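To illustrate the input format used throughout this study, we show a single complete record. The first block contains the structure-token representation of the backbone; no residue identities are included at this stage. The design step must infer an amino acid for every position from geometry alone.
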């Protein structure tokens, strides 16, 4: 892999990595970034330094100075780094480099398969067959098909670079070429095994067959599939003999920062991760159960955007935390993993940590640090402290409301106990306080509903119906006959955000009320779509039904468009529009899949 240069230099990364990263699914993008951030300590110093330097100046995290961004907790970096990797090659390349280096086992499997495929067709580079990805994913179910496909792409890219460098370094002395083959053949004959000689003879026979040989297609493809299957079976035999240790290392490596939050020190707990196991099946079930719970916890780990959302997530986090503690204990029991000192007695919920004073927190961290041998674990614990401090500053108002609610609940519980002892007056007083609190929450909810955007839309058609009357003086829907009014798109709320952007930000910029320097960045920040102020050169003239519309007896050329994705997949959408100078409004003339380009 080519390692990204430091941001302060004048050199930049090779183009194409941001496009590769953008081609991944949204969920896979987050998984790749999460893995890279969690496994920086496991890669080469060059790759780790390149990633940290790329973050400086390109990624911002609230509560951290620009130079300290690499020290921010991984959970706070995932989304900003993912957004930056979509537009900056230096970020995408450094993330992919760390991901590539830290997935050594998967990389070895893919490199062997690609090498076998290359030898079977007589080439050293080029795109692998689509069946290779499916075959490897089926043979190694512990890896997702997305990870296998990405690793194949990176391995093929690395092979191309190595082939080019080897070709450039080949000697041009004709005399040396005459003598070298004899020495190479002698060395190969000395080190070759019986299996190697069999394969060499077999491939020599294949190369001697003419290109018009009628059985090239069927038997050769079958041979490649059988070789891949044979190698997968042998790999599986090795894994079964060694036990589920590799899966344990993979799971805890992907969630190192989260396990540190539960005071589960990875390096100290994995001393016996290679077995032998008394019951390998029970160990496999335990690690898979832990992996499932950790993935579910990640979905609610970030702070909610609203008070109601955060209240729901806090309850789910508390429930998941208990399940995680049980899953860790079950894994330790069946795998006989050593337990470091101090022994974890309980996990304090996130809400309770907000109530601790600084002296208690410092005393707790000092006691825990005494039993930690790994510098990496110390850094992760510092990350968590910094994250809590940043969240406390950012959510001061929310914390105050939570404190008030907590005090009221405590008072109500005290009132309930007082009822049993005959303190009826105290019970009534706290009941009144509860009514006041509920009324305040109700009014707060009504205020939030008035300020919030319209409710979630079920489909694109409902968005169009709503937008007709929402911006009568700013946006006009005049869809041509080639538009798809009932277009299936998996995120209709994004369509509403995009139309709102056209009616407000884009229109204000065109009229000069509030100019925007970069409309593409503005739209991408709003809803993740891209803006293009042009169409394919010849397409508007060739396919007028796609690129023209009529409104108020006036024809408009739809020479601008916004959208997401490429091709004509269900996850792709395009909205084409024009600017009406006379009425100072946006005329939307097309909505649907990708319009026909000039070459079709």
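Output of the design step:
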């Amino acid at each position: 892999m080519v390692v990204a240069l430091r941001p302060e230099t004048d050199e930049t990364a090779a183009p194409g990595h941001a496009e590769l990263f953008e081609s991944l699914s949204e969920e896979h993008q987050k998984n790749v970034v999460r893995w890279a951030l969690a496994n920086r300590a496991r890669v080469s110093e060059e790759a780790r330094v390149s990633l940290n330097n790329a973050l400086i100046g390109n990624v911002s995290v609230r509560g951290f100075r620009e130079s300290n961004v690499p020290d921010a907790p991984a959970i706070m970096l995932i989304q900003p780094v993912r957004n930056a990797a979509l537009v900056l090659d230096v970020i995408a390349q450094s993330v992919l480099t760390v991901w590539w280096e830290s997935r050594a086992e998967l990389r070895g499997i893919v490199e062997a398969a690609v090498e076998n495929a290359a030898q079977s067709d007589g080439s050293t580079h080029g795109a692998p067959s689509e069946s290779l990805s499916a075959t490897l994913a089926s043979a190694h179910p512990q890896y997702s098909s997305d990870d296998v496909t990405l690793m194949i792409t990176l391995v093929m890219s690395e092979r191309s670079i190595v082939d080019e460098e080897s070709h450039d370094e080949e000697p041009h002395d004709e005399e040396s070429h005459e003598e070298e083959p004899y020495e190479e053949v002698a060395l190969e004959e000395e080190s070759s095994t019986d299996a190697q000689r069999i394969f060499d003879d077999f491939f020599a026979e294949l190369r001697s067959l003419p290109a018009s040989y009628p059985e090239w297609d069927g038997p050769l493809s079958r041979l490649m599939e059988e070789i891949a299957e044979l190698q997968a079976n042998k790999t599986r035999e090795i894994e079964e003999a060694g036990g589920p240790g590799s899966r344990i290392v993979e799971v805890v490596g992907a969630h190192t920062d989260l396990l540190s939050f539960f005071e589960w020190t990875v390096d100290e707990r994995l001393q016996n991760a290679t077995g032998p196991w008394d019951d390998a099946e029970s160990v496999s079930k335990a690690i898979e159960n832990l992996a499932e719970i950790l993935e579910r916890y990640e979905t609610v780990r970030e702070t909610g955007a609203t008070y109601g959302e955060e209240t729901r997530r806090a309850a789910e986090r508390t429930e998941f935390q208990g399940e995680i503690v049980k899953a860790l204990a079950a894994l330790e029991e069946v795998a006989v993993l050593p337990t470091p000192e101090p022994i974890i007695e309980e996990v304090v919920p996130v809400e309770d940590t907000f109530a601790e004073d600084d002296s208690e927190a410092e005393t707790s961290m000092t006691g825990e640090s005494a039993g930690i041998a790994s510098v990496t674990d110390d850094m992760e614990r510092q990350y968590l402290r910094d994250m809590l401090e940043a969240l406390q500053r950012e959510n001061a108002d929310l914390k105050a409301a939570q404190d008030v609610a907590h005090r009221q609940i405590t008072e109500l519980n005290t009132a309930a106990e007082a009822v049993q002892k005959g303190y009826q007056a105290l019970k009534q007083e706290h009941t009144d306080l509860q009514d006041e609190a509920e009324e305040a929450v109700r009014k707060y909810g009504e205020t939030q509903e008035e300020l919030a955007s319209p409710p979630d839309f079920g489909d694109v058609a409902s968005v169009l119906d709503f937008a007709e009357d929402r911006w009568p003086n700013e946006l006009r829907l005049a869809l041509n006959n080639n538009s798809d009014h009932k277009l299936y798109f998996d995120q209709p709320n994004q369509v509403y955000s995009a139309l709102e952007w056209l009616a407000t930000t884009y229109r204000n910029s065109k009229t000069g009320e509030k100019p925007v320097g970069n409309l593409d960045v503005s739209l991408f920040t709003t809803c993740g779509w891209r803006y293009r102020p042009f169409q394919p050169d010849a397409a508007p003239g060739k396919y007028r039904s796609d690129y023209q519309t009529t409104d108020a007896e006036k024809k408009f050329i739809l020479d601008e468009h916004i959208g997401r994705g490429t091709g004509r997949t269900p996850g792709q959408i395009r909205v084409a529009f024009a600017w009406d100078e006379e009425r100072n409004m946006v005329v939307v003339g097309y909505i649907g899949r990708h319009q026909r380009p000039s070459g079709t």
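Structural context for interpreting the output: Residues 307-335 form the longest helix (29 residues). The chain has 26 helices and seven strands.
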